[in-house]
Amino acid sequence: MRTAAFRLMLAVTVLGFGGHALLLPVLPLWVSRAGSGEFGAGATTGVFMLTTVLTQLAVPWLLRVLGYRAVFASGLVLLAAPTPFVLGTAELGPVLALNAVRGIGFGLITVAGSALVAELVPPAEHGRASSRYGLAIGIPGLALLPLGVATVDALGFTGVFWTATASPLLAALLVPFLRATSPTPRRHASDPGVEELARSEAGVDRVSPDPVAGRRAFVLAGLGPMAAMLAGSVAQGGLTTFLPLVAPGAGVAVPVALFALALGGVLGRGVAGPLVDRRGPGRLLLPGGVLSALGMGVELLAVGLSPWLLVPGALAVGLGFGLVQNDSLVALFAAAGPARYGAASAAWNIGFDAGTGAGASGLGAVAQPFGFRAAFGVAALLLLATTPLTRRRSSPTP
């Protein structure tokens, strides 16, 4: 983590994800003000996430063929390059098409970026490295998501769009200086035996010479981390989408709750890093899921009572999910081994993005007929229902 390559990786991440975070709330506003309404505003994000997830499925193959730097740089360019063209039209169809291209770029950088973390540091530091990577993603979002719309008033749409273009392009120019190795199986000479220990902690005692058996072992060992990741992202996605609707006349309580949700995620990932490295992957999945479930229970009680109760509930959900995010990523890396870091990264990112979309759509389907209390209750039950899968395996996968 002290190498120039890893520090440069963090700088590239801040620039790339910062440009994304700045535009995320502004693009829906752009089409909404042009007359596309709420449907058009939601469609911009929906199309973006759809192409992101579809792209993530192909990234492990692209990493093997092209290498990390080429995939990462290409993703940053695709994320940035379509943005200025949005200024030429506010019609929904062209904007959705341009945002679909941006989603492809985002799918590339999310998988390549988190896989690079595993490549650039030895397994003994994966917890802390993933934590710092999470901070590099979370802090720009924490600052820019609430400020995105306000920035439009200060700089206008033109200034925001060009800033969101320049930041990822600058990051792409820095990528060639990353001394990233190719995604091939190897041992870390500086940490003999660490990989075996990490894989044992994840329930995998060796890399099977049989590729089918190796994939099966990875899937079995990854069930717990993926279940925790999906349940947590459903809860967070539901809160992000519906908190403004739960208490529409609550004044500043809802923005503060959204900030608390994001802040909790950043703090949770920061706390998880050293704990995962010291205690091994998989130990924080259960407490993280329970903490998020308790937070959703507080949100359930807040509906119809006091909007300020939404703040501690959102903070608890964010903290719990932050623990799960970091621990699940390291657990998947340990289960996969160096030969499958790309696949582990893709699985984690797909779980995050797909769960976020499911939280928005699935909990919305519950809230429409039964109300937000029922929706938040379903999310809490889902978090609790997945906890048995997060328990550490008592014996290694054969």
TrEMBL record:
TM spans, by residue? 39-63, 70-88, 100-121, 133-152, 158-178, 217-239, 245-272, 284-310, 370-389
- What is the protein's membrane topology class? Multi-pass membrane protein
Q: Which UniProt keywords apply?
A: Membrane, Transmembrane, Transmembrane helix
Q: Where in the cell is it found?
A: Cell membrane
Q: Which residues form the Major facilitator superfamily (MFS) profile domain?
A: 4-395
For molecular function, the Gene Ontology terms on record are:
transmembrane transporter activity
Return the InterPro entries for the record.
MFS, MFS_dom, MFS_Exporter, MFS_trans_sf
What's this protein's name? Predicted arabinose efflux permease, MFS family
State the organism named in the record. Pseudonocardia oroxyli
